[in-house]
Design a protein that fits this description.
seven-stranded mixed β-sheet, about 35% helix, Rossmann fold, 7 helices, alpha/beta
């Protein structure tokens, strides 16, 4: 199995739990295969880091939601941003601490809320592992955790909508694939003004494309 559509009609807690367990057990494989290889880093810098950095306050305070093993934390910190990375997997955070001098917190983006307000929130792919209803809740939380006119960056997979599965790193991971317009409308429904959208190929051309969205707290 590489990456295929399932017969599931909706993303459920089962899919969340299986995916989380895979990240807990295979964080090193994930880091080496996807996060830290040069091809992926080059793509992320072009489609995510550069547009986010263009609109976010220079040297601002940034929350990296679903920080994984710290790649985006490292890149954004080197650009002068003051970052906090959160992830629901302690194993992923531990792997990130081996690779960066990052400030990480174990937290689920579905529940995370703080009195702090951030100039920017960067969420590269974590929303692909949530149901549509949970994504709507998370986007609302992102809105509340941003300063006025704060910048949000999110990226999701787009294509034939549905629930997909992959076991590329050793365990199953489930993904929500969106229609572009449906996802953009979801962002707008949560009071964000979309500034820029970009569609880019996955570094593995057999997989769905990425939609990257830069939005501002309206």
């Amino acid at each position: 199995m590489n990456f295929r559509k399932t017969s599931y009609k909706s993303y459920a807690h089962y899919h969340c739990n299986v995916t989380k367990n895979t990240y807990e057990n295979f964080s090193l494989k994930y880091a080496e295969m996807w996060e830290w290889n040069k091809k992926t880093q080059k793509s992320i810098i072009k489609t995510g880091i550069v547009p986010f950095s263009k609109f976010c306050k220079k040297r601002g305070k940034v929350l990296i939601a679903g920080c994984g093993t710290g790649r985006d934390y490292q890149i954004l910190s080197e650009k002068g941003f003051s970052c906090l990375g959160i992830d629901y997997s302690q194993s992923m955070i531990n792997e990130g601490l081996k690779r960066t001098k990052g400030k990480f917190l174990k937290a689920n983006i579905k529940d995370f809320s703080t009195k702090n307000r951030y100039d920017g929130i960067y969420c590269e792919s974590a929303l692909t592992h949530l149901s549509k209803s949970d994504t709507k809740k998370v986007l609302s939380n992102f809105f509340n955790n941003l300063v006025d006119k704060g910048i949000l960056y999110v990226a999701v997979k787009i294509g034939d909508p549905g629930i997909y599965v992959s076991d590329d790193i050793g365990g199953k991971r489930y993904f929500m694939i969106y229609d572009k317009n449906d996802f953009c409308n979801l962002v707008k429904e949560n009071s964000f003004k979309i500034i820029k959208t970009t569609i880019s190929n996955h570094t593995d051309n057999s997989r769905p494309k990425w939609l990257s969205v830069v939005a501002q707290k309206a």
